[in-house]
């Protein structure tokens, strides 16, 4: 199985890690209404919740881009490298979000998006 598909799994887990941080850092977590609880958070817990949301938003395009790259005949070594780079950019994005480094966080977001675009167009440049 290509490494890029394992990267899809890692990207799917990143939002769960972020909400775990929010739950651990915020005041007593209420599982009866988790969205309302998260909306009331501030500071690190709020930023972790926002990072979780953004991971969910970035995931579909990345996952589809990996599939397009693989099924479209993209060079698998390049596809794997781009997928790994995406995961690294998203981990760095999370760190920047948690640390409240807004400008660097935006750079990591653009990097991740650019890597998803690069994955999506891989089949066009594979030959």
Protein model, in words:
This protein is mainly alpha-helical and 127 residues long. The chain has one domain (3-125): Membrane associated eicosanoid/glutathione metabolism-like domain (Four Helix Bundle (Hemerythrin (Met), subunit A)). It is 83% helix and 0% strand. It has helices at 3-25, 34-39, 43-71, 76-99, 102-120, 122-125. Helix 1 packs antiparallel against helix 3 and helix 3 packs parallel to helix 5. The longest helix is centred in the middle third of the chain and has 29 residues, at 43-71. The protein is elongated, with a radius of gyration of 16 Å. The chain starts with a helix and ends with a helix.
What is shown here, in short?
The chain has 127 residues and is mainly alpha-helical.
C-alpha geometry: elongated
The share of residues in extended strands comes to under 5%
Under CATH, the topology is which? Four Helix Bundle (Hemerythrin (Met), subunit A)
CATH architectural arrangement: Up-down Bundle
Roughly how many Å apart are the termini? Answer: 22 Å
The largest sheet, given as strand count, sense and whether it forms a barrel, is: none
Low-pLDDT runs: none
| CATH homologous superfamily (4th level) name | Membrane associated eicosanoid/glutathione metabolism-like domain
Q: What is the succession of H and E elements?
A: HHHHHH
Task: Return the domain count.
Answer: 1
Provide the residue-averaged pLDDT.
94
Structural class: mainly alpha
For the secondary structure, the number of strands is: 0
Integer-rounded radius of gyration: 16 Å
Please identify the top-level CATH class: Mainly Alpha
Helical fraction? over 70%
């Amino acid at each position: 199985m290509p490494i890029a598909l394992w990267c899809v799994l890692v990207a799917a887990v990143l939002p769960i890690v972020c909400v775990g941080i929010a739950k651990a850092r915020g005041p007593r977590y209420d599982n009866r209404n988790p969205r309302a609880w998260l909306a009331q958070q501030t500071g690190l817990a709020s930023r972790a919740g926002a990072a979780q949301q953004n991971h969910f938003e970035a995931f579909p395009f990345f996952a589809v881009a990996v599939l397009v790259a693989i099924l479209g005949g993209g060079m698998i070594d390049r596809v794997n490298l781009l997928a790994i780079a995406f995961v690294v950019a998203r981990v760095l994005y999370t760190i920047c979000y948690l640390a409240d480094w807004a400008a660097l966080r935006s750079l990591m977001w653009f990097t991740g998006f650019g890597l998803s675009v690069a994955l999506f167009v891989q089949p066009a440049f594979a030959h």
